[in-house]
Amino acid sequence: MRIILSKSTEEAVDAVTTIILDKLASRPSMVLGLATGRTMEPVYAEWVSKVRANPIKMDKAFFFMLDEYLGIDENHPSSFKSYIKDRLIHPLNLAESQFAFPPIHLGGEYYERLIKEAGGIDLQLLGIGVNGHIGFNEPGSSVKSRTREVELTPETMEANKSHFGAGKMPSKALSMGIGSILEGKELLMLATGKSKATAIKYLLNHHDDESCPATFLKSHPHFTLVLDPDAACRISLNI
Ligand code: GLP
Questions:
Q1: Does the structure show a pLDDT above 80 at 77?
Q2: Exposed, middle or buried by CB within 10 Å (0-12, 13-18, 19+), for 48?
Q3: 147, 111 in Cβ contact below 8 A?
Q4: Atom of ligand 1 nearest to the CA of 40
Q5: What whole-number distance in Å separates Cα of residue 83 and Cα of residue 89?
Q6: CB neighbours of 17 closer than 8 A, spacing ≥ 6?
Q7: CA distance linking residue 120 with residue 182, whole number of Å
Q8: Is the N end or the C end of the chain the one with fewer CB atoms within 10 Å?
Q9: Could you list the active site residues?
Q10: Whose alpha carbon is nearest atom 3 of ligand 1?
Q11: DSSP assigned state of 36
């Protein structure tokens, strides 16, 4: 596991964006797994501005989204499909056919097959939930879990409900499983803000612990964790 401790949120976002764009530039046909959430908003904004300033070819790349809510239309303004359309697909004029979305009507096995047919995910971008979830793999998820329907915990619903305004927050999602995520050739997690500090401290002090699914990532040979000072504020490094 590699940890990048950044001096500011901007520096953390820049580190993540640079890793992604360097890889895309050197391997234009790469397969990327993408995450959503507030943490990733500045990553996509910087990705767009960097590519506009220094164009790189992205038309051969392919993207898999990590998860999606169930119970809302995929074109709902708060769906993760709309999120990535607004932040990456439209600003960079990418083709929607370069993206695969967890198929809310077809189920997880179909998605797993698509990932396999694409040759697997080269680089998986990840955030972390306040309770240590990855994707929507909530505490209690098995390390062997595959893409499937999941129930959101009250904590996750509380953290995400503001995206739905006065509308009803979905209580279910389709998420790549922990087993599916661990098959990514490289994993890149970004955590920013004080709300993630407890989960990050737990992640660094525990291994293979179902109560904090992110701990499973530590067994991956190519896992990079990028932290801003707030997310890192509860850890102490004995150097
Ligand atoms: C979301 C997504 C995750 C994300 C995490 C953190 O609900 N399912 O992919 O990494 O929870 O979200 P945020 O960055 O908004 O804190």
A1: yes
A2: middle
A3: yes
A4: 14
A5: 9
A6: 43, 46, 47, 50
A7: 11
A8: C
A9: 67, 131, 133, 138
A10: 135
A11: -
Q: How confident is the model at residue 238 (pLDDT cuts 50, 70, 90)?
A: low
Residue 167 pLDDT level (bands cut at 50, 70, 90): confident
Q: Judge whether residue 23 has pLDDT over 70.
A: yes
Give me the pLDDT at residue 239, please.
53
pLDDT, tens digit, for every residue of 93-117? 999 999 999 987 788 999 999 999 9
Is the CB of 36 inside a 6 Å radius of any atom of ligand 1?
A: yes
CA of 79 to the centre of ligand 1 (A): 13
Mean predicted confidence (pLDDT) in 42-71: 97
Ligand 1 closest atom vs CA 67: 8
Q: Domains in the chain, ordered, with CATH?
A: 2-227 (3.40.50.1360)
Q: Containing H/E element for 84?
A: helix 80-84
CA pair distance 169, 231, nearest whole angstrom? 26
**Residues pairing with 175 in the sheet:** 67, 148
